[in-house]
Amino acid sequence: MVIVKGTKGYTDNNYKEYAQSEVLQLIGRAGRPQFGPSGKAIILTEKTMVKSYQNLVSGREILESSLGPELVRWILGGIYRQEFTSTRDVTKWLSRSFLAVRTKKNPLKYISSNDMQDVSGGDYCKCKG
């Protein structure tokens, strides 16, 4: 059993709601096959957030990737740690990311208006794949 005791953390002199992906990561610990066939998770949150978490864990709310704005930082960090030694390493890592999964399912969420200006006739969304 996993109990999430609160869904906010103190950062920048303020309490902020954890990212949905962080909460899912925490409750995902409850159902690990090596420890049993099922698991339970309890999320303690503010009353105003209950519906949001109910929708999230039931699959009614779609989780999107938050990697996009931090992508350059992650790639530079991987280069610094020598996890990426070639463009191929970065491409392989990125192709296995949640960002790649969500971009295939919802490409317009991850394309900026500047990118759209470079595209004629919607060809941008004709991805190989």
Strand residues, percent: 5-15%
Average pLDDT level: 83
Count all strands and give the number: 4
The low-pLDDT segments are: 119-129
Largest sheet: 2 strands, parallel
Verbal overview:
The termini are far apart. The strands form two sheets. This protein has a two-stranded parallel sheet. Strands 2-3 form a two-stranded antiparallel sheet. Strand 2 and strand 3 form a beta hairpin. It is of the alpha+beta class. The radius of gyration is 18 Å and the shape is globular.
Short description:
39% of the residues lie in helices and 12% in strands.
List the helices and strands and how they pair.
Elements (H helix, E strand, L loop, with lengths): L1 E4 L2 E4 L2 E4 L2 H9 L12 E4 L5 H9 L12 H10 L6 H9 L2 H8 L7 H5 L12
Parallel strand pairs: 1-4
Antiparallel strand pairs: 2-3
Which features does this protein show?
129 residues, globular, alpha+beta, 6 helices
